[in-house]
Design brief:
Blueprint lengths: L10 H8 L5 E2 L6 H11 L7 H4 L7 H18 L1 E2 L1 H14 L12 H12 L6 E5 L5 E3 L2 E2 L13 H11 L2 E3 L8 E2 L45
Parallel strand pairs: 1-2, 5-7
Antiparallel strand pairs: 3-4, 3-6
Helix pairs in contact: 4-5
Pfam family, one: UCH
Protein name: Ubiquitin carboxyl-terminal hydrolase CYLD
Subcellular location: Cytoplasm, Cytoskeleton, Spindle
Length: about 230
């Protein structure tokens, strides 16, 4: 355990601490969905550090301390988290979530995020989305859904998000404080893409609802949008 607080890893420090054997979060008993989610959320960014420290109205302090002291701080300090620490968290989630399979079954990352953010910590939804003229919907993460497209062999995240929003007629109602994106996947037998290039920056200009944008013809503020 690392009871002291450690900042997220950046640049050369991230490479030095996280690269090599026995690094990252140790997998055990179908924990890969949670290991990958926790690593993505906390190893190199502080945008969700409020989950570790802030006493939310519904906050379960025991789960919060396990997450902070047994997983996030050791990951940032030494670059390694043992499987037992993640199992400790999974046992608590099983107890709090009325679901007996969190300790042994593979889950969807969205199910894990909804449980820990909404039911256990009581965090407000991070995303507000709207499809066409339908009612606004709130969620904690966005999963990319799209049909197979032959022109995309090795896509980047920017391309996937834009095409997914377009195919679902979705818009972001407002700029999110944190944009958690789940990549497309189809289980163990079939993967839609063998590789996806991470976009180090994400341009959401065209994904925002009613946001002023430049006309691609004349350069003035656009009055019409063609999908």
């Amino acid at each position: 355990q690392a009871p002291d607080s450690f900042p997220p890893l950046r640049n050369e420090a991230a490479v030095h601490v996280l690269q090599g054997r026995m690094k990252g979060i140790q997998g055990h008993c179908n924990s890969c969905y949670m290991d990958a989610a926790l690593f993505s959320l906390f190893s190199c960014t502080s945008v969700l550090d409020s989950m570790l420290f802030k006493p939310f109205p519904l906050c379960d302090r025991n789960v919060q301390s396990i997450l902070r002291d047994e997983i996030v701080n050791p990951l940032r300090k030494t670059g390694f988290v043992r499987a037992r620490s993640v199992m400790h968290l999974r046992e608590q989630l099983t107890e709090k979530g009325q679901c007996s399979s969190f300790t042994n079954a593979e889950k969807d990352p969205e199910e894990f995020l909804n449980l820990i953010m909404h039911q256990i910590l009581g965090i407000e939804p991070l995303l507000k989305l709207q499809s066409g003229s339908q009612k606004e919907q709130e969620c904690y993460c966005y999963q990319i859904f799209m049909d197979k497209q032959e022109d995309l062999v090795v896509p980047d995240v920017q391309q996937l998000v834009e095409r997914s929003f377009l195919s679902s007629d979705l818009k972001l109602v407002e700029i999110p404080s944190c944009f958690i994106i789940q990549m497309p996947r189809f289980g163990k037998e079939y993967k839609m893409f063998s590789k996806i290039i991470p976009s180090l920056e994400l341009d959401i200009t065209d994904l925002l609802l009613d946001s002023p944008r430049e006309c691609c013809v004349c350069g003035n503020v656009a009055t019409l949008e063609c999908s």
